[in-house]
Amino acid sequence: MFTILPIKGLFDQIEGFYCDGISAGLKANNALDLGFIYSDTLCEVEAIFTNNKFQAAPLKHYQMYDKNFKTNFVLINSKNANALTGQKGIENIDTIFSSLDFELVNPIMSSTGVIGNHLPVEKIIAGAKKFDLNSKNAHNLSKAIMTTDAYSKTTMYEVKLEDGSSFKIGAVAKGAGMINPNLATMLCFICTDANIPKEDMKEALLENSETTFNAISVDGDTSTNDTVLLLSNKKSNVYDKDAFKEVLRLVMHDMAMLMVSDGEGAKKAVAFEVLNAASYEDAQIAAKALSNSLLVKTALFGEDPNFGRIASTIGASRVVSDENKLVISYNDVIVYNKGEFVFNEQIEQEAAKVLKNDKFKIICDLGVGKYSFTAYGCDLGYEYVKINADYRT
Amino acid sequence: MFTILPIKGLFDQIEGFYCDGISAGLKANNALDLGFIYSDTLCEVEAIFTNNKFQAAPLKHYQMYDKNFKTNFVLINSKNANALTGQKGIENIDTIFSSLDFELVNPIMSSTGVIGNHLPVEKIIAGAKKFDLNSKNAHNLSKAIMTTDAYSKTTMYEVKLEDGSSFKIGAVAKGAGMINPNLATMLCFICTDANIPKEDMKEALLENSETTFNAISVDGDTSTNDTVLLLSNKKSNVYDKDAFKEVLRLVMHDMAMLMVSDGEGAKKAVAFEVLNAASYEDAQIAAKALSNSLLVKTALFGEDPNFGRIASTIGASRVVSDENKLVISYNDVIVYNKGEFVFNEQIEQEAAKVLKNDKFKIICDLGVGKYSFTAYGCDLGYEYVKINADYRT
């Protein structure tokens, strides 16, 4: 048995972790754009990266370390992704780290921003030299990693085991959806003092990513820089495998939900629940098809209970389905029932009312099996177009 | 040898075909919403339908005929898709046809519009009773099948063989992209007097659909009603297999290009050429990924030569690729060259100039093989959101 408590504050409360964000002149108007996480002991580290074929230089740099490397430092910049930058992109990272006077052990870099430009190495070095490694300012760090994010994203938990011992875990992230290979890639940094064995770190990350970061969509694109990094300094000396998996799922779910709610102009966060599919894969395909469909997303923006688009998207996804078994509801309002016409004026009004909420569910019961999956998405409106049309400026 | 001549006018010029469009009160303001194609002899017929799992009632109705059925009549309505309407949706079609006094042989129905409502049977019968089967008014027909189309879509060719004999082929279509399961499905009706054997019809349709209708994208959605119908009355008594395939490709290409240029507010028609891919499938996957990417489409809308989005989309498509072999150009302006930095201010300005055109190419030379594919797409801006947010109203 264990108890998971959401706690106020940020991961800089965890003993031994230090962080901050400063302005290095990458963004205009002295906005925060360069940050770090420093640990006063060596951390075990595990990561999940984008499956984009063109992984950015920092991802390649990370993967050049030995499999079981430990680290005490993560440097993070926004505004430039250091992607599609070839060998020089990797060399620039080494140049930056070798110019700093801190005692760095296997330092990690993480970047987000425009693709195809080399890092402004001098600015980054000059900025990093100003870091105070005694800072505990996760708030500034969470600001420094933002790109098109409307708000910064943090979460923090304490886990108490039955014997009274406890460990902490917290995260900062950026990302306005699974989106924007260009300027807004998804990054998430998770710090913990749990005494987790190295082999459990990857397992817990992978198991939980499927239903959290891989279940959200703003526009269905995958960036060159997506990174989820888990750092553990083990200082609590406490660990419970089930408790850790559960709290990591909460941390990742919190971050994923904050991202999807911040989907570049999105006003609505929607859970697309596909129930009773013929296979888990089918449930996943159908749920993700719904959360990715432009037609569904624009109908949500228009607050139009246009269930034909839901049904058609299920059909277009080619999963096992039958229009005489399908049931579609907005929260508990059934709008399509196994081919029977139920969408009268009253039902339409009730459905329209659900759509006016900031958060609601669209439930598709396929009625052909026993597998379910929930994907998370948002509406898509004028603001998305505006943000993405004028991106680099 | 043969010559293909684009000719003015519409397919109603082909001997034996009659058509018209009228207002039956399905659309508001007496807009044209019901049309027909009538042939004074029985036609050989072949069709390609959507691969959406929830095929609309008219598609099911068609497929209930014998494999080699002939027909003399196609009835087409807009505003209601008769999809997700169960058995009653099919019965309604029979009710409509049995209420008409014309001598109909295996009549075909085709519908486009909102999903999930039953056809207004009485209105359609009353409207169809007003048809004059001697009309030759393909212009009105092309208007009657429009939904969100900004303009009607027609094309017409004459094919002259070496011996001086000739046949004609023409088409009307609707569709503002491969889009909108809800109100704007893609329909295309092609009429010819070529003396084509039944077995060649399907082959020619399938061969050409891959590089025409299946190569365009406005939003990557597949509707419940998509239909391409080829009718031949064989009256010319003339046929040449190569000539027919070639002219059918032109007809389908013309229609596909008109659709993609009419992509619900689109201002730009863009050819995404993927060259030197490792396989034909890879070329197709990468080209379609580009034409479907929201990030690419919004950057086109913003006229931003943001090649990072192109590269990232190629990478996200997971085809065989290497950033040190990839070359990206806008028309003939190279913006990314095998990892070398070429995107200086002058190149950026030249690229931005290309993007100001209504039509241009984005070329991605993967440099890893010898296969190519071209997909066609458009930009996506505020107008798309507006049209799709307020759809059913």
TrEMBL record, chains A, B:
User: Looking at the record's lineage, which domain of life comes first?
Assistant: Bacteria
Tell me where in or outside the cell this protein is found.
Answer: Cytoplasm
- Its Enzyme Commission number(s) read 2.3.1.35, 2.3.1.1
Q: In which pathway does it act?
A: Amino-acid biosynthesis; L-arginine biosynthesis; N(2)-acetyl-L-ornithine from L-glutamate: step 1/4; Amino-acid biosynthesis; L-arginine biosynthesis; L-ornithine and N-acetyl-L-glutamate from L-glutamate and N(2)-acetyl-L-ornithine (cyclic): step 1/1
Q: Which reaction does it catalyse?
A: N(2)-acetyl-L-ornithine + L-glutamate = N-acetyl-L-glutamate + L-ornithine; L-glutamate + acetyl-CoA = N-acetyl-L-glutamate + CoA + H(+)
Fetch the SUPFAM superfamilies from UniProt.
Answer: DmpA/ArgJ-like
**Which coarse location class describes where this protein primarily resides?**
cytoplasm
Keyword annotations for this protein?
Acyltransferase, Amino-acid biosynthesis, Arginine biosynthesis, Autocatalytic cleavage, Cytoplasm, Multifunctional enzyme, Transferase
Instruction: Indicate the residues that form the catalytic site.
Output: 185 (nucleophile)
Q: Which family does it belong to?
A: Belongs to the ArgJ family.
Which PANTHER family does the entry mention?
ARGININE BIOSYNTHESIS BIFUNCTIONAL PROTEIN ARGJ, ARGININE BIOSYNTHESIS BIFUNCTIONAL PROTEIN ARGJ, MITOCHONDRIAL
Q: Could you describe the subunit structure of this protein?
A: Heterotetramer of two alpha and two beta chains.
The task this protein performs is described as: Catalyzes two activities which are involved in the cyclic version of arginine biosynthesis: the synthesis of N-acetylglutamate from glutamate and acetyl-CoA as the acetyl donor, and of ornithine by transacetylation between N(2)-acetylornithine and glutamate.
Name of the protein in its database record: Arginine biosynthesis bifunctional protein ArgJ
- Source organism (scientific name): Malaciobacter molluscorum LMG 25693
* Encoding gene, per UniProt annotation: argJ
